[in-house]
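Assemble and predict.
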Amino acid sequence: MKVQDQRRRALLSVVLVLASLGSASLDAAEGELLDAARAFPMTARYDGRTILVRFDVADGYYLYRDKLRFSTEPGTVKLGKPVLPRGEIRKDEFFGRVEVYRGSVEIKLSLTSGSPPGQVTLKTVSQGCADAGVCYTPREERLTVVSGGGPVSTPGPRTPGGRSLLEELGGKP
Amino acid sequence: MNSLQKGFLFVAVALVALAMGFYFNSQPEPEVSDAGAQSVASDASPNAALKTELANLAGGKASLSQWQGKVMVVNFWATWCAPCRKEIPEFIRMQTALEARGVQFVGIAIDETDKVRQYAQEARINYPILIGEFDATELGKVLGNNVGGLPFTVIFDRSGRVVKTILGGTNESHLTPILQPYL
């Protein structure tokens, strides 16, 4: 084989490898999307006065800051205004500048009732989207936290499940 | 052209190929994403899905079966869903352009009736809209929307068979060739 041919083949290999590298992640981007439970897992813990809620938003997904709602069950336990950290500004073609959360975010909820209970069921409504251009229906989740009892999580990446708000409304298990 | 020049040419082609790969990968919200696209076989009981009754904007009930015999493009959407809003003007244009060829777009909104009615008027949606909550989500699942994301678009042929599902946004240039064989 001539040296010139060898060079040509080597260069052709480089072209093919580079081209395949370029398209490999395109295929990955078209892979399966996570369901909301896996995309937006939530953890809460309670120290008797404050509930600390954490969302661990998966890479490539975001939660809308102004769509978050928190309440307790029973309703006799009242929450103060949630302390919501600043989010990332997202310029949306239709909704203008919206604040979103990516990665991990912690939200502080203070109980305002006189005698804090030993156990509280926190009801959370959240809504988010994937960067791939898919949005999820508003999701309602409940977590029962015990004072000093350690963190409690919604089904996350390892244990998919949970119910959407619409499933709750439909009354199905 | 000597071998050195040829070498440079190859490298230039390689760089262009790489750049194109990165360019397409770096699009944060692809115009067309059919990540969840899949053909749903008859075991998805499309006939039962077609008979599922949902609320309509007039306050009554309606099912997709009334449009059976047409090539149906059923789009699950919501007013709060930005990628849904982006594709709706394309559907409006396509409904006008393809109506005579037997294409029927139907929107299924997973949303509040008042918001849907207002948006449908503002956007001048020229195809029927059904509305639902749990029932509409379930219908989407039966039709292949396992993730529960929006927008989700399902194409039925004239016999009522699901021939394509698209999770994520679509547009006229993506949809037209998909519809073509069934017109």
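Confidence is low (pLDDT under 50) at residues 14-30, 156-173 of chain A.
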